[in-house]
Amino acid sequence: AQSVTQLGSHVSVSEGALVLLRCNYSSSVPPYLFWYVQYPNQGLQLLLKYTSAATLVKGINGFEAEFKKSETSFHLTKPSAHMSDAAEYFCSVRTGGSNYKLTFGKGTLLTVNP
Amino acid sequence: SAVISQKPSRDICQRGTSLTIQCQVDSQVTMMFWYRQQPGQSLTLIATANQGSEATYESGFVIDKFPISRPNLTFSTLTVSNMSPEDSSIYLCSVDKGGGGGETQYFGPGTRLLVL
What DSSP letter does each residue of A8-48 carry, written as one string? Predict the structure, then answer.
């Protein structure tokens, strides 16, 4: 079975500060990992994905995430927060092949203070 | 990627009634999915809809409550039947795109349902 744990349901940063959103996964086989963002009153937008190529993955809007197998982590970072980054962020995992199911974490709400 | 639209975008319904949500994709896809996102919660998969076969429901979801149609490779509907206030949620449609192990799910904008 696969699972995802997002540490911190709410993260607050100042504009221009580093953004770090934590995600740990559990999977019995090499996983595919995804970060999605949900802006208020919108659906989910794919930020980035890891599919066993480079361990450092760059996504849209300046976000990146690093896959660390030894730590079973896939933390999301951005060097400098912008007001427009305020949203809910979801980490998800799938184990690939015929297993198409995505398992989502509970989400982290990012607040950016001026 | 995929461009997905949903109708309606939001609705307010009375308990005991039913609502059908439509999902349209800009390209042919094999697998379509329906999720529920209850207030302040993460996403829960309701069912997987493949064209030409019955939908596959996850534990806790049944066809009588959430009947799904998948008449072709670009369209699906989800009906929320005999609604109660507990059905107030965002309902999202998604599709699988890509291949060679790089399948990615893309999501529609969601349908925001309030049941009174």
Answer: -SEEEEETTS-EEEEEEEE-SS--EEEEEEE-TT--EEEEE
C-alpha distance from B109 to closest chain A C-alpha (Å): 4
Angle at CA of residue B71, ends B70 and B75, nearest 5°: 65
CA distance A76 to A22: 6
Per-residue pLDDT of chain A (114 residues; tens, 9 = 90+): 788 999 999 999 999 999 999 999 987 777 889 999 999 888 899 999 988 778 899 999 999 999 998 999 999 999 999 999 999 999 999 876 666 788 899 999 999 999
Length of chain A: 114
Note whether A55 and A67 are within 8 A (CB): yes
Residues of B in contact with A106 (CB under 8 A): 41-42
Interface test with A, best of B104, B111, B112, B113 (most A CBs within 10 A): B104
Q: Are the C-beta atoms of B63 and B70 separated by less than 8 Å?
A: no
Pairing of strands A10-14, A19-26: unpaired
Which of A41, A90, A96 is opposite residue B101, by nearest beta carbon?
Answer: A96
